[in-house]
Design a protein that fits this description.
single chain, 404 residues, alpha+beta, Jelly Rolls, Phage tail protein beta-alpha-beta fold, 3 domains, 18-stranded mixed β-sheet, 3-stranded mixed β-sheet, 8 helices, 23 strands, sigma factor antagonist activity
């Protein structure tokens, strides 16, 4: 049943002066409506935008801190999801909580945009055109192909847990957690060979390099790396997107080369996005420090900052980073903050392995914020996105057509 709330409470929520009970009432109110909240009509455009931003930030904080807020979980299966323990030592956002939060955030974001279009007197365009029933499209999850130095390829999705073929004097293992881990006997005796790990669209994969550095590759990405690190440098090459947790070694810098840019670290956590079909590369730092170099330009990153380099330029732009947006993919989330439909659909194409086609003069200058569970069907994501003013979708096999 749809609940109502006074505009005064909403404004106190915006000002940060409402009580805990009123704050909970605001969240419950948003959870209760299915389309447009009547009370939002009374807010000014500036207040609506501020309200979206405030609730968006609050929910991102809550899903990162499940012990502070969130639905209580009672079943045994849900207790596993509550801990968020993947068995790899990395904490992940609990599935049930971020799924609820994702729905709430999209209700906020899309509700605000629908209000704007209605206030402008524009008809709401919603609903995927009715066509013959087509198979649902789901991402392929954890798959990758390992290309050895001799050209041999191994499908890591099909490979069994345990030891993979020896390579020189290095041992390659597939762990219980599904990672690939390298164990050289010793740097002094090891033969250095270069492998390439490639993730197809719709997949991500983790590996542990010979020095203990952990790398998670996003969809449609690849990493070229040695079976062991000898000499005074640790060098790898990235295309696409990867999250790095670099093993500390102050005497041997770790260098990531991507699209003409180099990131150099001694031991730190950071994310790099360097897809060839993007107009820029982006490095986001979570912990430690990173030295970014492009031609003669050099810049240092500190935690919470990002470095953006436009293609064809050597100018490095440093700014505050939205860490949740940059790294949400590791936690199984699409996190969008003030992104246009073209940028969003690039991510959709990579993750769901679909072709995106634009028909007519599709608007790409609209921006919105939201969170979505990447394990869900693409049809569910489209059902949210289609509610944006001016966007309609149809699915033809593995092709998504965007129309006015």
């Amino acid at each position: 049943m749809k609940k109502f709330i006074s505009i005064e409470i909403i404004r106190r929520y915006l000002a940060g002066s409402c009580s805990q009970e009123e704050s909970e009432a605001v969240s419950e109110w948003f959870n209760s409506y299915g389309s447009v909240a009547d009370e939002l009509v009374e807010l000014t455009p500036e207040e609506r935008e501020a309200f979206e931003k405030r609730l968006f930030d609050q929910i991102l904080h809550d899903i990162k801190n499940p012990s502070i807020a969130g639905p209580r979980i009672t079943s045994a299966d849900d207790a596993y999801n509550e801990t968020g323990d993947t068995g790899t030592g990395h904490r992940r956002i609990p599935y049930k909580w971020f799924a609820v939060a994702a729905m709430l955030v999209f209700a906020v974001s899309l509700g605000l945009y629908i209000n704007r279009s209605q206030n402008a007197g524009k008809p709401n365009q919603a609903g995927i055109p009715k066509t013959a029933k087509q198979p649902d499209l789901l991402p392929a999850s954890n798959r990758a192909v390992l290309t050895l130095a001799n050209g041999e390829t191994i499908d890591l999705g099909d490979a069994k847990m345990g030891q993979l073929p020896h390579q020189g004097k290095a041992t390659i293992l597939k762990t219980r957690e599904g990672q690939i881990a390298y164990h050289p006997k010793s740097e002094r005796d090891a033969d250095v060979e270069y492998n390439v790990m490639t993730t197809p669209k719709g997949s991500k994969f983790e590996l542990v390099l010979a020095d203990g550095t952990k790398v998670c590759l996003n969809a449609a990405s690849s990493l070229r790396y040695p079976t062991t690190f000898t000499g005074g440098q640790r060098n790898v090459e990235l295309t696409g997107e990867g999250y790095f947790e670099v093993a500390k070694n102050k005497d041997k810098p770790f260098n990531v080369a991507f699209n003409g840019v180099t990131a150099q670290v001694l031991g730190t956590h950071f994310n790099i996005s360097a897809y060839h079909d993007d107009s820029f590369v982006n490095t986001t730092l979570l912990e430690g420090s990173v030295r970014i170099k492009k031609d003669r330009s050099v810049a240092m990153l500190t935690p919470g900052k990002q470095a953006v380099v436009e293609n064809g330029s050597d100018h490095i732009v440093i700014s505050d980073a939205n860490v949740e947006e940059a790294t949400g993919w590791r936690d199984g989330l699409f996190v969008f903050e003030h992104q246009n439909i073209a940028s969003i659909m690039k991510k959709v194409s990579r993750w769901y392995d679909v072709e995106i086609v634009y028909k007519g003069s599709t608007k790409t200058d609209q921006y919105f914020s939201g969170v979505f569970d990447r394990s869900k069907k693409v049809e569910e994501l489209l059902s949210y996105l289609e509610k944006l003013d001016g966007a309609r979708f149809s699915k033809e096999g593995r092709r998504i057509v965007i129309m006015n």
